[in-house]
Amino acid sequence: MKAKKTKKQKIWITLFIVLTILFLVAIAVCCAYIGDFLVYRNTEMDGKLLTYAQRMHGVFGFW
User: Fold this and answer.
1) What pLDDT score does 60 carry?
2) Quick check: is 49 in a domain?
3) Are 41 and 30 in contact (CB under 8 A)?
């Protein structure tokens, strides 16, 4: 019984670690896009991550 419980705990801990890492990566990417937007905000130059058109019309062109 105890061996089964520890196996489930290992699975949950591994899942938690993976999700935490993915969350931190998503935060880092968001910060990079925000920084790129702020650096090239009032210029007509393409940024490192966003082009001029993407900054003016949105990343997916929705607006």
Assistant:
1) 74
2) yes
3) no
CA–CA distance, 24 with 8 (Å, rounded to integer): 24
The count of structural domains within the chain is 1
Q: 58: which 2 tokens?
A: 């949105």
**Which uninterrupted H or E stretch holds 53?**
helix 52-57
- List average pLDDT for each run of 10 residues in the chain, which is 63 residues long: 79 97 97 91 88 82 66
Predicted structure pTM score: 0.72
CB 58 within 8 Å of CB 52: no
Cα separation, 60 vs 63, in Å, equals 8
The range of the structural domain enclosing residue 32 comes to 23-57
Residues near 48 by beta carbon (within 8 Å), at least 6 away in sequence: 36
Domain annotation covers residue 62: no
